[in-house]
Amino acid sequence: MRAIITYHSIDGSGSPISIAPEVFDRHVAWLAGSAVQVESLAALIASPSPAADGRPRVAITFDDAFENFGAYAWPRLRDRGLPATVFVVSGHVGRTNLWGSRSSPGIPELPLLTWDALAHVANDGAALGAHSRTHPHLTELAPGALADEVAGCQQDLAARIGSPVNHFCYPYGDVSPTVVAAVGRHYALACSTDYRVLRDGEPTLRLPRLDMTYFQHAGAFDDWGRPSFLRRIATRRAARAVRAWWTRR
Ligand SMILES: [Zn+2]
Predict the structure, then answer these.
(1) Model's pTM, two decimal places?
(2) Residue 83 lies in a domain
(3) Which of 117, 121, 228, 238 is a plausible cystine mate for 113, CB 3.0–4.6 Å?
(4) Strand runs (DSSP E) across the chain, as ranges?
C-alpha cells in the first residue's frame, strides 16, 4: 500500500491545522521504525510496486511552509533519514498564513519560513514544492490569474532558491479540470486533499493524501494498511464529502 501523509503546522494550539510537538514526535518514531518505508514523493509516485520486503510505502508532505517546519519538524525528520516535501506559498514567504488578509475562524496566524530559511532546508535535503503565490481558491480565478498563481510560484522558487520545482499542491484542495490542466502545463505531480490511499495508475496531477489531524490519538498507526484501517479511511472520507457538500450549499 502507498500513501501520502499531510501536515501543516507543528504547534500546541490544538487548531485544525496543528499537530502538537509531542504527537509529532510520536509520529516520527513510528515513521522511523520498521513498519513503513518512507520515500520522497517523486519516488513514491515513480513506482507502484510494493516495497521489496512488503512494507507499506509512505511519503511525507507539509503544506504552507510554516516556520515550525524548519525549526521543529525538518531537523527531526532529517536526523532519522526521513525525506519530506514542503509546499511553499511564494508570495507569503517570510510573512504569515493570513491569506487574503482575512483570518479563518479557528486557524491561528502563524509565521512562515523566510527565503533564507527555505534555502537552508532545501540545501539540507528537504524537497520544495509549489503551493501558489497567494493561496487563493484556484477554481474561482480567471484564466490569467490562474496562470499567474500556478506558473508564478514556480518562477518565484526558481528565482529565489535556484532549483527547479515540479511538485504542486492545490490550496484548500480546490480543484477542477481547468485547474488541473493549468497545473499540468508546469508540474509533474500535484497533491489534493482527497482523503484516501493511492491506487495503482493514480493520475499524478490529483494525488490523494491522508491528513494527519485524524491520527493524533495513541495507537492511531497500529493497523496501518490493514482492512480495519482502510474501512476507517473510507468512513472518514465519506464524512468529509458530506461536510464539503453542506458547506458548498
Ligand atoms: Zn495551504
Answers:
(1) 0.96
(2) yes
(3) 117
(4) 2-7, 9-10, 18-19, 37-39, 57-63, 85-88, 127-130, 167-169, 189-195, 207-211
